[in-house]
Amino acid sequence: MRYDADMVEPQVEPVRLEVNGIERRLFVAPHRTLLETLREDLGLTGTKHGCELGECGACTVLVDGVAVLSCLALTLDADGAEIVTIEGIGSVSHPHPLQRSFADHGAAQCGYCTPAMILTAKALLDRDPHPTDREITEAIAGNMCRCTGYLPIVRAIAAVAAEDRP
Amino acid sequence: MRIDPHHGVVGRAAPRTDALAQASGGLVYVDDLSYPSMLHGKILRSPQAHARIVSIDTSAAAALPGVHAVLTGADLPIAYGLLPVAQDEHALAIDKVRQVGDAVAAVAADDPDIAQRAVELIDVVYEPLPVVATMNDAVEIVDEPIHGDGPRNNRHREVSLDFGDVDAGFDRADHIREDVFFYQGNNHAALEPHGAVALVEDDGRLHLWSATQVPHYLHRIVAKVLEIPEHRIRVTANPTGGGFGAKTDVFAHELVAAKLALATGRPVKLILTREEVFYAHRGRHPVLMWIRTGFTGAGEITAMWFRTYVDGGAYGSYGPASLLYTGQLQTTTYRIPAYRFQGVRFFTNKPACGPKRGHGTPQPRFGLEVHLDKAAEDLGLDPVTIRERNLVHPFSTTVNHLRITSCGLADCIERVVEASEFRAKHRNLPPNRGIGLAVGAYMSGAGLPIYFNDMPQSEVLLKVDRGGLVTVYSMAADCGQGSTTMLATVVGEALGLDAADLAVVTADTDLTPIDLGSYSSRVTFMAGNAALEAAMKLADLILTAVADELELDTDDVRLGRGVVLAGDREIPWPDAVRMAEARWGLLTAAGSYKPPKGIRGDYKGAGVGPSPAYSYSACVAEVDCDPETGFVAVEQVWLAHDIGRAINPLLVRGQIEGSVHMALGETLMEEQAFRGALHDGPSLLDYKIPTALEMPPVEAILVESIDPEGPFGAKEVGQGPLLPVMPAVANAVHDALGIRVDEIPLRPDKILAALRDRERDGQGRYGPTDLPAYEFRPPLPVDPPPELR
Amino acid sequence: MLRLPVLRHAAPTSLDEAIARLSEDGAMLAAGGTDLVPNLKRRQYPEAKTIVSLRRVTGLDGVSVDDDGTLRIGAMTTVARLADDGAVPEVLREAAGAVASPQLRNRGTVGGNLCVDTRCHWLNVPETWREAAEPCLKAGGEMCWVAPAKKVCWAVSSSDLAPAMVALDASVRLAGPDGERTTPVAELYRDDGMDHLAKAPNEILVEVIVPPLGERRAGYRKLRRRGSIDFPILGVAAVLEIDGDVCTDARLVLGAVASAPVRVTAAEDLLTGRALDANVIQEAAELAGKAVRPMSNTDLTSRYRKKMVPVFVRRLLRDLVDA
């Protein structure tokens, strides 16, 4: 069974996003996902994709502070939202503590799941600065990593949580 | 020559050199590339498992506005395959399709939506052919062989070898045991889907970027299939979002992207969907095994007969090597005085299997280690003792002519047994809890290249600029294992420089000298040795120049940390470099590595298995089983690995923990199963990769046997630690429940079936019993090496 | 990269407007979109032309408690919010916390989870795959590949919240072109994989109303391969009223074993009026096992899933009695 693309005329609609603190006004087609808009329209390729069906977690970004899968979110539905991608929290020159900790703990091997893992961890720590290892593990249970066995990722997040523990 | 590290660079648990780039989303994977006027490619794939192509009508697709090129098999008629003996693939199907997902036609269009629409408009008429879905089908359905040029059946390759007097070995056995095992196939499921970008450069040369582990082999095959000389092609391997062997073959989408770029004169990007990745596959072969072993009363092996039936899928791929790997490495852990290996690989109408982490050896290792556990029970021995009584000796030769050098296996066993309190726990844990032991070994690189030649397998070039920066050039492709960091660390250690202060240029056929690729765990050993040789030469140039300049004896000049120590002076590294450039001109040094001769036999098949060194692992797993649901919870894993020397302990531990994760997935849930010839679920929802919640704690123990030939004594760690995990868990389940599931994965329904079998006065076993009705040819006798005769 | 087909998007700002847009040809309702978008990407809805998003309609989210203890859950309340809200009874928090993965719970809604389309491993598969198999009944073909004998679709009800809501005697408020109506959750479902919701396509679930649990004990247990991401392949929800030793009222509902949640009245009747000792619990568990016939259309075998029904029922009942 094939879709008859002729049925629907492509059209574009305006959308306003705040991406990494900067307002972006765009025209996008309604069937475009936030993943595609971030990567292909805004050039923010730090957001990855592994299945595009909500099964792997690699496309996780923060929408209004919450970790969501950008492959399942329509860009138009994000109108007015604050979006944070991996590029928005730090850089090689000025890494976020989680980025530094992931590097130091060997929490990335191929690095492909890493941006999503870090953003998921950031959402967790923003909500609960001192999670237990079990809570960290539960928080990243929607993010697949094929290289590390997750253990160094949990260590990296726990180390950041421990840093500012009173 | 053995070189010991003394600058503290090797042995330091340092982050990867690109760790912050990864963590900040800056690492450029292939789908992150974008070029002006870039087109988007899409491949039409076969919905038929086995069919003749009657006609293909591409006119509607070609007429769609925004479509710039449409290709079919006729545009890429040259057959290829990674192995010279398996040239059985076409970029786009010609005449017939052999699996669901075979590439049939392709388009390049202005945007992905138009490309998608265009492939939907291609009309293909198929004439269905009998479908070969199983190995039994492969034997029985012979009217229309999958590959018409072979014999009139679907046998792809067969091997039948006798090493030593096997019959005499069984004759002198006090106890003989036979077992049948099945190991289901599975997929690498690297998180990044495969993809490629191609364009024609300003000088008219083709440039192909790909998520590949093997840029050199890709380079050769693109040249062959596109009929362009190699010097007119540049291949760049992007960092891959996980490899595990998935990206060690050459795929239709790479050749199609290149052809589309040439056809349109515009950059073309072609990224696979997850469904397409499952069809591209090249993952773990399903293997049915029959093992017969003779033992003395004391548990010493007198003879072993190992049969493997290997379900290859639709194409050869690495299959001839995969088949041999199902038999060759059994002898690297145990002394087997007489050994018969018979194996056969069949073609079936399913995605082609190939190399996945451990390439052909995890399946027989599972069988062998469970078989030994059972034999130990037969003989009243414990699992540690039966293994210790048969351990291979360091610096020996196996009956199938493999050269064993450093071997820390005895240490590995001792360390995991101690750390896990195995002896106290085995047979003594509370109900439904159990503990199991197994071991394994893997190659530090295949001894032979994939295509026959006498050239080095790895070459490294160093160049030094006037500011003192050392740049390392190597084709080694980092698939996440850390080869780039390894190169910086080895050269840094040799020159007394921080790894982070070097530059490393990798994986580009225009810029870097040969490395055959990131497969067979070869890079640390081979590229590492090439890098070390280059660094030693460079050090010599610099020390000589400094000695000459300062009129010192060369014995009085040596490298310190970031300095040259010349008599009582410390010359800063950049100053020393400038002295050397003044003395020698441009400062470069090259190193090469080729495995030594004499590490293999000369029988047919002897090319697969030899390695300059083997890594060793031992694993203990403790499980908690639910006898009502059949769920197995792995509570803890202890894994000791003989790494030779840990160049970077952080990365070594990472490989061990990652191997355990991948192994547990295979053990408990992952399977590339089929409904007929249809994949059981080509998605990451249906294909069950363990989540963080399924991952137990892992105690990784590093054993350093200091290999005499490895760079600073190092051996591999990328694949070996996976091998003992599956049988260790299976043996632990037996300890917990008293049942045997002789099949991977150990699904809950199989655990319950084995428990039911025991209730019905059976043995408490679930597993295969029947073998395909396939007659092996008589084994070819091979004399054991002289010292074993 | 797998992408959506070309579609239109409507973002109504009122319920009336949403109902009007939903009445148009090819309109598909999206709350969180976590079920609709993957199904659309797999080209499972060839009739789809417009996604009608509920995200701009205000007043559809949030959890509140009436004076009498009745819980009101807005349909657009996220599953994550339900799992975290202290006002929500534990059984619903358990069920919500067991849905999919953290990110999917952050986006997926209570209304969406209750309406989640039925699933089958002959249907919820990628496009080339579905083309390779002849289309099944739900995909517009002639036969169900799970049970070819009958022209019936057996696709599985895959909601974690549904069995829990049925066990709690919850109701849903539906808004449609003819106004609003309230119906028990149990009557929201039809045991038909093709058409599992007993509501018009342009009726929108706006609120879930859960009567107070009071002193009753309730729980939810889920069978799946992994601790996250996976849909249920069996869900068991139970609500017990226990007076002294004696069970005075019982609800036992199974999920993911048919195209609708299955209430096991035989087991409920058995439990009611009895002291819940091990024998009674075992008997009820076996009745539950006999009440359903899971099909080979999702993860693990039908035989295995059927075998797990009494195990999960017994364990849940025992836990509730011991609590």
Keywords:
heterotrimer, B: 789 residues, Aldehyde Oxidoreductase, domain 3, Aldehyde Oxidoreductase, domain 4, 3 domains, seven-stranded mixed β-sheet, C: 323 residues, Uridine Diphospho-n-acetylenolpyruvylglucosamine Reductase, domain 2, Enolase-like, domain 1, four-stranded antiparallel β-sheet, 12 strands, 20% strand
What would you say this structure looks like, in words?
The complex is a heterotrimer of chains A (166), B (789) and C (323). Chain A is an alpha+beta fold. In chain A, 30% of the residues lie in helices and 15% in strands. Chain A folds into 2 domains: 5-88, Beta-grasp domain (Ubiquitin-like (UB roll)), CATH 3.10.20; 97-163, DNA polymerase, domain 1. Chain A has 5 helices and 5 strands. In chain A, helix 2 (97-104) packs across helix 5 (151-163). Chain B folds into 3 domains: 39-129 and 188-280, Alpha-Beta Complex (Aldehyde Oxidoreductase, domain 3); 160-187 and 283-447 and 600-766, Aldehyde oxidase/xanthine dehydrogenase, molybdopterin binding domain (Aldehyde Oxidoreductase, domain 4); 455-593, Aldehyde Oxidoreductase, domain 4, CATH 3.30.365. In chain B, helix 6 (215-226) packs across helix 7 (252-264). The two termini of chain B are 31 Å apart. By secondary structure, chain C is of the alpha+beta class. Chain C is 29% helix and 20% strand. Chain C is built from 11 helices and 12 strands. In chain C, the strands form 3 sheets. A 5-stranded antiparallel β-sheet of chain C has the order 4-5-8-6-7. In chain C, strands 9-10-11-12 form a 4-stranded antiparallel β-sheet, sandwiched between helices. Chains A and B meet through helix 2, helix 3 and helix 5 of A and helix 1, helix 3 and helix 17 of B.
Query: If interface size is counted as residues with C-beta under 8 Å from the partner's C-beta, which chains form the largest one?
Result: A-B, 62 and 60 residues
Instruction: Compute the CA-based radius of gyration of chain A.
Output: 17 Å
Low-confidence runs of chain A? 1-6
- Which series of helices and strands of chain C comes N to C? EHEHEEEHHHHHHEEEEEEEHHH
- CATH architecture label name of the largest domain in chain A: Roll
**Beta-strand content estimate of chain C:** 15-25%
The total of helices of chain A stands at: 5
